[in-house]
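Flavin reductase like domain-containing protein
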Amino acid sequence: MNQDLRTVMRHFATGVCVVSTFSDSSGTREHDVVTVNSLTSVSLDPALISLCFRLDSRFLKDLRESGVWGVSILCGESEAEARAFARNAESRRASLSETPHHLGERTGVVLLEAAGWMECTFRDELVIGDHVMVIGEVVELGSRDARGPLIFLQGGFHTLELETAQLP
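Predicted structure tokens:
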């Protein structure tokens, strides 16, 4: 059943984002970032979003401990960053040192130069099957001029050119 579901879900296009958190071990803050495509808006008032991670995710462990995370919504020109942060933790940390970023003012999490970004604080979680859905309250956010998004579809990255037609 899992392979059948994966095959069907390959036909559902999703946006791509990079999520960041940190751990404080031995008095040293160590940032980590990971590429995800499970971002969902849950509520506008209060502003809540959700993300899903595997139950055994080291990133999830750090996120739970820090209680904060950042989301950088990637544009079409960011495929290299999406690929870099889809690797193992050691490779992701090495890539972070080479990627332009800044720390969020409210949470101290890493934010990339992206189409949109949010800083979140932990609100709740729900274990569902082999994943954990974490829900965060958005405490700061921002966006840049609209650029075509980075899309994940059929196992690969794609870009989408935006048309500037206005609705009546």
